[in-house]
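Troubleshooting: if your tokenizer reports a length mismatch, compare your output against this known-good record of 220 residues.
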Amino acid sequence: MRKFVVIAGNIGVGKSTLVNLLSEYLGWQGFLEPVIENPYLPDFYQDMPRWGFHSQMHFLAFRYRLHREVEDFKGSVVLDRSIYEDAEVFAKNLYLSGAMTKREFDTYYTTFVNYTETISPPDLIIYLRADVETLQCRINQRDRDYERAIPSDYLTQISNLYEGWVQSVDYCPVLTVPADNLNYVAHPQHLALVAQKILERLSGVEEVVFDASEIPAVQE
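Known-good structure output:
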């Protein structure tokens, strides 16, 4: 039976890596978060309050098209981030930080609700949870200059919004994975454990718990 799984989590937590590895391990199709050209981004970085709404609306429309593409795919899918996070985490963060007005956020959120009423939710959300220190370390390791300027306060705010979002999700199950000590690339047993937990939850097991103590110890 076809399955649709979303990998969610903060910047640098390892979403794209897990999508690539899970798609190969499980034989599913991976849909990565592509680098898209948002025509509002240059203006947004110069003046966030002026262009925050326009930029986020562009991303929302793109996410919706991608979600429809995933729905049309016949086989099982694992998706890097979802339309839900755009609204509940990133757009909400712009509103809370003052980069979007209440009127703009209300308009944005109404559009988001209208979009989501026409699509099917995923079968499972995998939420990768990691401390800000871990996120910063991984961001530095992947050597993207524009990401190195991200302040820790921003990552903390995004993490807090993620925690609130996953607690409120009622349209599909959420499996939280403690990602601080996971390294799917160097240690295949970590990937196998995550895949096992995912398949258990998708099979209907209601009380799947991912305990950090279950992560196989490895010799560095």
